[in-house]
Amino acid sequence: MGQRERLYGSSGSRAGPLRGAGRFVHSLPLLFLAVGALFGLLTPANVSAAPFFTAAPLVGVGIYTVRATVLVGASGLLLLLGVKIAKGGPDEFADQMDLLTVGSVAVLALLINLLVRRGVTALASVRDVAGAAQRALLPVPPERVDGLRVAARYEAARADAQIGGDFYAVQQTPYGVRLVLGDVRGKGLGAVETVVVVLGAFREAAEYEPELETVAARLDAALRRAGAVRG
Predict the structure, then answer these.
(1) Taking the mean position of all CA atoms in its chain, how far away is CA 46?
(2) What is the DSSP secondary structure assignment for residue 84, as one 8-state letter?
(3) DSSP 140
(4) For the whole model, what pTM was predicted?
(5) What is the pLDDT of residues 80-97, one digit of tens each?
(6) What is each CA distance from 201 to 101, 191, 209, 225, 229, in whole angstroms?
(7) For residues 67 and 47, what is the distance between their CA atoms, to the nearest angstrom?
(8) Strand partners, 167
(9) For residues 162 and 137, is the Cβ–Cβ distance under 8 A?
(10) Could you give the CA distance from residue 231 to residue 195 in angstroms, rounded to a whole number?
(11) E-assigned strands of 12-165?
């Protein structure tokens, strides 16, 4: 599933309206350029269309690529220049300031776009690392364990947080299939450390302790030791 499908919807009754809204937002910069050109040509010479041309690249910052942002900014500047020439040329100080403003905003939009793209790339790298850590900490269990069908899915509450305090494990032991499922109170690295302690204690105790009460007691003891070490 592509990024556009995730953002605007890919199926179901709401997909059409969401996809239509996405197309409208994506076309807003071009709409500003077109309206600005018409407004500039149909209004008196003392009325400026510069606000439309300054808005176009700024609206496209979060939805356009760097190349598209450059094209929108340059198009706005050229359209404004064309409107000024059609009205008699950019001779007045106000006309020159309009051109300077539109050009400056286009450059600003380009810089913002570059920063946004860099942030998105960094966030994607963080997500990749978090995803790898999550898979190492909570590996996908086998589909069958001693005749039982097993399925697990980890979904963080926030899209940008793929690792946290939820945990699960399933293990085949001499005493049957044993499974643990829980949620550590807290968040961040402290919660992850606690998950590591709990899962390690569970895998050890589940293999050698015949009684579930003893397994639970071993988990409690491991948590107390970890808490004492952290102070």
Answers:
(1) 44
(2) H
(3) P
(4) 0.49
(5) 999 888 887 656 777 788
(6) 65, 15, 11, 11, 16
(7) 31
(8) 182
(9) no
(10) 17
(11) 144-145, 148-149
What is the DSSP secondary structure assignment for residue 56, as one 8-state letter?
H
CA atoms of 48 and 11, how far apart (whole Å): 44
Task: Tell me which residue has tokens 């050698």.
Answer: 208
Do the Cβ atoms of 166 and 154 come closer than 8 Å? yes
The residue count for the chain: 231
Paired residues of 197 in beta bridges: none
| Structure tokens given for 149 | 């069908």
Phi-psi region of 2 (alpha: psi -120 to 50; beta: other; left: phi over 0): beta
| Cβ within 8 Å of residue 192, ≥6 positions away | 133, 137, 163, 164, 165
Element (H, E) at 102: helix 93-137
Are the CB atoms for 217 and 201 separated by under 8 Å? no
Q: pLDDT tens digits for 176-224? A: 999 898 888 776 667 777 888 888 899 899 999 999 999 999 999 988 8
Instruction: Using DSSP, state whether 170 is helix, strand or coil.
Output: strand
3-state secondary structure of 182: strand
Distance CA 169, CA 150 (A): 11
Per the CB < 8 A criterion, the answer to whether 20 and 27 are in contact is no
